[in-house]
Amino acid sequence: MQFQISDEIIEHIQTLIREGKDAELQLYLEEVHHADIAEIIDELELDEATYIFKLLDSEKTSEALMELEEDMRERILDNLSAKEIADELQQMDTDDAADIISELSEERKQEVIDQMEDEEHAEHIVELLRYDEDSAGGMMAKELVMVNENWSVTGCMSEMRAQAENVTRVHSIYVVDDKGKLKGRLSLKDLLTAPSKANISDIYIPKRDYVNVHTEGEEVARIMQKYDLEAIPVVDEMGRLVGRITIDDVVDFIRDEADRDYQMAAGISEDVEADDSIWHLTRARLPWLVLALLGGMVSVTVLGTFDAALAEHQALFFFVPLIAAMAGNVGVQSSAIVLQGLASKSLRGSLMNRLLKEVLLSLLNGMALALLLIVGGVLLLGFDFWFGLTVGVSLVSVIIIASLIGTFVPIILDRMNIDPAMATGPFITTSNDIFGILIYFSIAKVILGF
Amino acid sequence: MQFQISDEIIEHIQTLIREGKDAELQLYLEEVHHADIAEIIDELELDEATYIFKLLDSEKTSEALMELEEDMRERILDNLSAKEIADELQQMDTDDAADIISELSEERKQEVIDQMEDEEHAEHIVELLRYDEDSAGGMMAKELVMVNENWSVTGCMSEMRAQAENVTRVHSIYVVDDKGKLKGRLSLKDLLTAPSKANISDIYIPKRDYVNVHTEGEEVARIMQKYDLEAIPVVDEMGRLVGRITIDDVVDFIRDEADRDYQMAAGISEDVEADDSIWHLTRARLPWLVLALLGGMVSVTVLGTFDAALAEHQALFFFVPLIAAMAGNVGVQSSAIVLQGLASKSLRGSLMNRLLKEVLLSLLNGMALALLLIVGGVLLLGFDFWFGLTVGVSLVSVIIIASLIGTFVPIILDRMNIDPAMATGPFITTSNDIFGILIYFSIAKVILGF
């Protein structure tokens, strides 16, 4: 059943385009799912992609447009007239249309909206553009089935059938009062089995799960996931029903968030893919590398201040990368666990308890590792005892400090309302490198005396 | 609308339990969503948690059971009799019941299954237990609405109503032939608008999206996400419809996978949360630290072989942590991008092109960074030119090698069918530390000559 994109398929399509075999091309693409068409288009040259966009009808291309990579979409939209874009948007649900239109320049945006024939659809899109794209308002669609609590079941059925025309998946029928305030919801099953003279107000399930237009996307995802919801209604500040968010948008949101956090932890500051341009990839990677370089310069300076030790204790310097690496690894481990706890809101209990636990945990890990190092070093490699002790004590101390930094920097950032994901990867490794080296040589100075 | 767990709520419930106010407790918990009950129970002592489980009816507790943290669930199940567990399972969908039962010991499993009253439900669960839990068979539920292609619309309607009783969310009505082979699906809308004398075979939509019982969970998630599916049917080797997977299970799967990849990249080898026991957390973190320690020992040895340089070129050693840190950071960046490409199957094109691109990209990044370092070092800090050149050339070389390792180790592992996520974090940083130091001193030897 699975469509698998291949070089043969791409070449076949390129040949059809080159030879202008429109009918054959249309016939071939008719059978292909719009998500697969998007995959094909992503692999084509811009003029070929535009050709396909102009050839297929907007019902199909509008759905493919949503699935394209941002770069390609931007370039195709540049090649389409305002009227052509308006036709695409006309076919889309309001949430998707708003996403597309928000990528255009202000001037283009206005032109496209002016070209839209369906006034109501255009108005809905304009409304959605007001909200931050990572808020419930920015994620919701205006398409939903809504009935008044005062209606009868019979009146409701016919109204509902009319509304359902525009809604791809019904999920729930929402119940509002005369002022449009969300009162609750109905299942299709309830509606079908209720006596036809009953009023909606007698049979609806009072509202329970809903979000506000300003609720953050992350929170929406968390609620829908926790309560296994397939759709959630969105209300404005007055409690009026203004839209709904469906689970498929949240799935994309979850995946995007996870990708972003993962990249941030790896020191990549923009959303990139392996196939993006070199310029784009460089821009995403260089800033963190510069930070790491500056951190490295600090560690050079720190090491330089201990040059007196070099003549007597050469081996001390050989252990620098080991100490730095351990500090970096421990810091990243601690920060990763705390970050996931912060993201899922599952971190509970006092800071003091967490501090004690982290110290105990690092003490355990540190002692096990130090023992391994001392036994290996003193017994097998013939280190001086005091030297072994220095490295061992430093290792334990560095691990404790590094894990505390890894644990508390994200917590503190979170309390200051800064994205704690900033504090993973390069940031934690770089600062832990520096602290690690500083602690190591300070301890060496005390034990070995130089 | 949101329930927010707090210390007051926990204490209130603990007081009610202690004072044996069962009626009040039941009344209080009746209003609370099962996902929130699970959150409360996770915070209680085992005897309190068990008390609540025995107090509430199994319709409510069975749903809460699914949402509990694994530790707590395991301990509560230990406290329940086989009959009590069987009652809980009776209330659950088959996929959830199979997940729970697979956590029990072999002996206990048998006892619980023997105690189940609904033979068919038990048989379904036993069938699901056969599949690997990360396969479509292990994720699917047996609950679905299925009609025969030869039925009439009228006959279908009544049969469907009966079946829908057991299915929480219908999504789609699946159409099979006399042998039970999946033929396609019907929407409720189609069924309602079709002439009542029509046969199902005239109106169904031929099958398109489905998976096999052995399809991997990751692939199921990818397909459902790509095609925006809310449910997907699962067929056996004979093409017979045996179950279906709904989007809510896939959402959990995606989140779990993302968490696991993130933790793996951070050097955490088991699925842990910040609130897990110290022992559990240590076990998850220590193995990677031991690996990093052993890697560190190798770098100590490598540095030791260059001790001849120490007397003449002290400053060389001061730059070791900088070089190692850059190698580590670049490696993690490259591997993260490749890993995401592998996971989403969006990596296309030849290895040679990827190699050229990665070299070009690192050359760009490396030259920018080396320039910064040389200008800073020679002009501002007064380095010797040859020394600055050594560090600069090393930096560019190390960045290129590190990015090649970060790019190709995951690709090679993936081709060998080993999880490429293994190759992120500590593994990449540690090996790049070693290679970085080796390259740095080799270049220094050539330029500075020692």
3D structure, described in words:
The structure is a homodimer of 450-residue chains. With 450 residues, chain A is of the alpha/beta class. Chain A has 3 domains: 7-133, Alpha Horseshoe (MgtE N-terminal fold), CATH 1.25.60; 145-256, CBS-domain (Roll), CATH 3.10.580; 278-448, Tetracycline Repressor, domain 2 (Orthogonal Bundle), CATH 1.10.357. Chain A is built from 23 helices and 7 strands. At the A-B interface, α15, α16, α17, α19 and α20 of A face α15, α16, α17, α19 and α20 of B.
Provide tags for this entry.
homodimer, 450 residues, alpha/beta, MgtE N-terminal fold, CBS-domain, Tetracycline Repressor, domain 2, 3 domains, 4-stranded mixed β-sheet, 3-stranded mixed β-sheet, globular
CATH class of the largest domain in chain A: Mainly Alpha
By DSSP (H or I, 4+ residues per run), the number of helices of chain A equals: 23
**SSE topology string of chain A:** HHHHHHHHHHHEHEEHHEEHEEHHHHHHHH
Number of domains of chain A: 3
Give the chain pair forming the largest contact, with residue counts.
A-B, 105 and 105 residues
The count of β-strands of chain A is 7
Helix content of chain A: 55-70%
Which structural class should the secondary elements of chain A be placed in?
Answer: alpha/beta
